[in-house]
């Protein structure tokens, strides 16, 4: 098995030319919202039921609500923040908004922070009206709660009458598959967002925005519906342009400036590596050492950071010790990945007898909590290197999660990880021997910068896709893992053959040299030795 170099065409999404429309309608904001529109249509037909809309942080609520109001051909109002009783139920001089014929959107978070007001609203919905002074007031507004899906789940469990008042659930999609829409429809959606920010898109801005959309979804065939995120980017691009027309260059500069505002921690980390405070080789070979890849997420900025992983082995009871876990710096998912790693090793080498080996694996110079199983591929390769005493190429970084049969599974943050290692290699000088191994299932998520694509195209940097752990080890250690015979013995000079021979020696079954005191004395007494 050999790892496959990833084709240049697969390193980033590509889109055909799309012409801009002269105008975009407000209901275009319902693009890709089939589930929401279905729930909304049912809600309009059921006169005495409320609707709960589960949205997400990246949505621009006013545009979404306006699109639904256009669909219903009704006016709408939106209550959020400090909601008062008088707003809902009226006072001495007003009937309150519940007595008007509008679509009434209410922010769930704001309302639920006022338990008494929530109880009054539920009661009014159950009774289809409310008492205002001595007058009975009919409830005529159509009530729509909008908030996080977690609120819906909690209310279903904790609020007895919630199912009777808000029986309809509408889910706001945060992305759409390209097979479900046309690019022309999506570009019209982008144009409508540009209108909301009082700017105009030029034709050169379309491709950068489509590329940015794929970055948000982390998929080449899916586009983001996070309207608020696009509005923020377009506002920043407008300030860069100093004009109402936004071009592709303005989008690029706005993203560049945003990165500069948020990447202080990334630059500090890079400086520590450049100053050799953090030891992280990217050339040569080393036994029991490999370059893994991590992702740092600070909430508003995500970047990739290489990490040096080492393994040591010695005679023992078969335990593969996770030093991160023992020092309380490893999370539960990372511990699970280590257990799977151990299981894989036993599945290959310890089917019929225990392994007389103990090993320690650690992220060197790591002083914060590590979690996730995306390093399990790198850790396993590092462990096999230490057992077989075969060196690993330090210029190739590895990311991937293992299952118990050695299959390599998808991981998160693949683009950030590749870019983080590439940046390190670029600062030191590209040698043409450096690269990254990623799971084959992550190829569809690639969305790399043009500079990395150019380096791969020119043979200065390499990207490999794999589906099994053996593919990675053969590339890293330049030796075939080998196939077992009917007795489960691997060829002697294969990588797994070397591992098997070392394990046999540790078990006392091999031809390891005897270094006991008595043996050394006997050798000294042999003729010809002084």
TrEMBL record:
The reaction(s) this protein catalyses: Hydrolysis of proteins in presence of ATP
EC number: 3.4.21.53
Keywords: Hydrolase, Protease, Serine protease
Chain ranges of the Lon proteolytic domain: 284-479
GO molecular function: ATP binding; ATP-dependent peptidase activity; serine-type endopeptidase activity
Residue spans crossing the bilayer: none
Active site residues of this protein: 374, 417
GO process annotations (BP): protein catabolic process; proteolysis
Claim: Isomerase is one of the keywords in the record: no
Enzyme class, broadest EC rank: hydrolase
InterPro entries recorded: Lon_proteolytic (IPR008269), Lon_Prtase (IPR027065), LonB_AAA-LID (IPR046843), Ribosomal_Su5_D2-typ_SF (IPR020568), Ribsml_uS5_D2-typ_fold_subgr (IPR014721)
Recorded family membership: Belongs to the peptidase S16 family.
Protein name: endopeptidase La
Biological source species: Shewanella mangrovi
């Amino acid at each position: 098995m050999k790892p496959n170099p990833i084709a240049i065409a697969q390193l980033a999404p590509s889109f055909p030319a799309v012409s801009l429309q002269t105008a975009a309608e407000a209901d275009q904001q319902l693009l890709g919202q089939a589930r929401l529109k279905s729930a909304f249509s049912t809600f309009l037909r059921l006169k005495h039921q409320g609707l709960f809309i589960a949205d997400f942080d990246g949505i621009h609520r006013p545009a979404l609500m306006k699109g639904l109001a256009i669909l219903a051909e009704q006016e709408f109002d939106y209550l959020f923040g400090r909601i008062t009783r008088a707003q809902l139920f009226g006072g001495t001089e007003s009937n309150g908004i519940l007595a008007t014929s509008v679509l009434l959107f209410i922010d769930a978070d704001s309302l639920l922070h006022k338990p008494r007001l929530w109880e009054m609203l539920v009661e009014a919905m159950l009774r289809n009206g409310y008492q205002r002074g001595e007058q009975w007031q009919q409830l005529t507004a159509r009530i729509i709660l909008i908030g996080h899906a977690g609120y819906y789940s909690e209310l279903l469990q904790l609020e007895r009458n919630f199912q009777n008042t808000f029986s309809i659930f509408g889910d706001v999609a945060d992305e759409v598959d390209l097979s479900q829409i046309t690019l022309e429809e999506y570009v019209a959606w982008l144009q409508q967002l540009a209108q909301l920010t009082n700017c105009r898109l030029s034709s050169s801005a379309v491709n950068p925005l489509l590329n940015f959309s794929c970055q948000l979804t982390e998929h080449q065939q899916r586009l983001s519906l996070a309207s608020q995120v696009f509005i923020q980017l377009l506002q920043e691009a407008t300030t860069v342009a100093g004009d109402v027309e936004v071009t592709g260059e303005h989008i690029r500069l706005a993203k560049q400036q945003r990165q500069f505002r948020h990447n202080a921690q990334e630059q500090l980390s890079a400086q520590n590596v450049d100053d050799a405070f953090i030891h992280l080789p990217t050339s040569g070979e080393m036994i029991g050492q490999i370059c893994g890849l991590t992702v740092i997420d600070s909430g508003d900025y995500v970047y990739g950071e290489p990490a040096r992983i080492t393994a040591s082995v010695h005679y023992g009871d078969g335990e593969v010790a996770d030093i991160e876990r023992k020092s309380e710096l490893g999370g539960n998912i990372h511990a699970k990945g280590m257990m799977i790693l151990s299981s894989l090793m036993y599945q290959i080498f310890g089917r019929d007898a225990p392994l007389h080996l103990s090993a320690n694996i650690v992220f060197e110079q790591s002083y914060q909590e590590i979690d996730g199983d995306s390093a399990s591929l790198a850790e396993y390769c590092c462990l096999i290197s230490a057992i077989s005493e075969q060196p690993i190429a330090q210029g190739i970084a590895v990311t991937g999660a293992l299952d118990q049969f050695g299959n390599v599974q998808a991981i998160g943050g693949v683009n950030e990880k590749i870019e983080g290692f590439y940046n390190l290699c670029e600062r030191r000088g590209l040698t043409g021997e450096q690269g990254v191994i990623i799971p084959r299932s992550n190829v569809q998520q690639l969305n790399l910068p043009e500079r990395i694509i150019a380096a791969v195209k020119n043979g200065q940097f390499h990207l490999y896709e794999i589906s099994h752990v053996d593919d990675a080890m053969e590339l890293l250690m330049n030796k075939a893992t080998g196939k077992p015979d009917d007795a489960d013995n691997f060829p002697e000079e294969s990588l797994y053959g070397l591992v098997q021979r070392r394990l046999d020696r540790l078990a006392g079954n091999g031809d390891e040299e005897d270094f006991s005191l008595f043996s050394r004395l006997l050798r000294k007494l042999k003729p010809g030795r002084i």
